[in-house]
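Hi P.,

Sorry for the delay on this. The queue was packed all week, but I finally got your sequence through. Input first:
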Amino acid sequence: MKRLFDQHKVRKTVDLNGAWKFKLDPDNVGEKECWWTGLNESETVIVPSCWNNELRLLNYEGNAWYQKEFEIAEAQDVLFEFASVMTKADVWVDGKWVCEHYGAFTAFRFICFLEPGMHTVTVRADSSFDAQSFPQRYTDWFNYGGIAREVSFSPLKGISILKNHVVYTLSDDLKSVKIHAELELYNASSTECSSNLTVTIGDAEIYSGEVSLNSGKTTALSTPEVVIDNIELWDVSSPKLYTVVAKTETDDLIDKVGFRKIEVKDNNILLNGKSIELLGVNRHEEHPDWGFAFPAKLMKKDIDLILDMNCNTIRGSHYPNSKIFLDMLDEKGILFWSEIPMWGCGFGEKALQDPVVVNRGLEMHKEMVRDYYNHPSIIIWGMHNEIWTSWECTYDISKKYSEVLRNGGGNRLITHACHNPLGDTSMEFDDIVCINLYHGWYDYNGYPKTMKAWEILIEQLRERLASQGWSDKPVIISEFGAAALAGFHSHFDQVRWSEEYQRDLLDYTLNLFHNTDYIRGTYIWQFCNIRTSPEMNMNRVRYFNNKGIVDEYRNPKAAYFKVKELYGRFKDENA
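Then the structure:
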């Protein structure tokens, strides 16, 4: 994966980005006709990219094939890594099928033994929807197709390091850390192999020892716990990062970690023992010109704009974001909420009772934790978003997912985003209660058709939490807002779609939430306009969700400056 730093100094990694052969397969005949042996009448595309950004392919859904040649200098095991293929991937190497992977926003890897010379890798990417797909067809973003993130391979030698999670517990005074590493090792040699393994964090060596492994075998290794004194904390005001290096005689794996403690106590969210109000936005990693193949330069621009608005947190709606984006957040001290693409009313009761759907969600959580575990910026794992949480099947899913995230996800808060808060049963498994509602934009039965309906909901929610024994759980308003067409202005109050109405609604709601004692944060929906699916018929003018406080090209609307003013004032009040 592309990172802000080199992940290896010993291991050589070869970039497979750039020109690939490309061929659509609208009739799904490629496998029958053995297209992995060669793509005749193909065209050339650049990877990473999304095919729906091409003029003639805007609404193409289904299969497409990619193929690329590469060269290996000597016989050896080779580790391939695909950072994101939309949505299902099948991969062939030299005409031999090697793996499949489901899930668009998490990486997958596999190892092949290759002889010296030229080789071919072929990928069939399938973006189609069915009853078991993630997301479902009815979803409020555009589900692009293609190889959307980076592709690479690494020749492996001897005992190689495939994973290194830094597991730690801070002392009560937050001045020292009890720490160990959980590693995954693989022997790429043709015979049993031994090597010295070291793990260092900053200037401290936390492990050194001999490891042995049979040829072609993988093993998990947990190092003994050690204590490091006088550590510097990672915080929003001082995001201290430590370089962690796991190294054998033939391989290495480098990452960055930060030490911080996130917890809830007495209706508060505490970061390193201090109460913090989350001042945030929801952000899709999407652009009308690049789709999900989002360039790093634009990531930096988004972060600069979000910091300019005095935000301290971002929700990655509604899927794991690029690793390099998380690296940027780690460096800047911006808090992050990461979740899987289990979105909304597309997932009906039948789908949520399907073991394939449940297990796909479970695997996506495991993959998200595997790849993002070391990022200190991630303080929240989100289980799902706006699925109906009064059903028994949803309660069971939340129980299963929360156990996986709590047991293996490190020091994070667990939650889900709920749109039926007065009937939700899954809040039992949440550390924080997160509410998605749009009073003042959408109409809800039993509420006045005005933004003032928020005042009624706030009191109803207070009573609901008290009746369930959940009053100690902090509340986040995780989605709220209004749409505005950039450049549409009105002299009159309450004119929907105007920049003024969006600005005034956010002015009212942000002040209301900030001054409500049990609400400890807000995530405005949303940072920027995004393209939506044609199936969405909920006032999606231009087939865009226009609730961005900047437009899809990052030009500010009037709401941008109001949010900057209010979040700046809230930050000063919290200082």
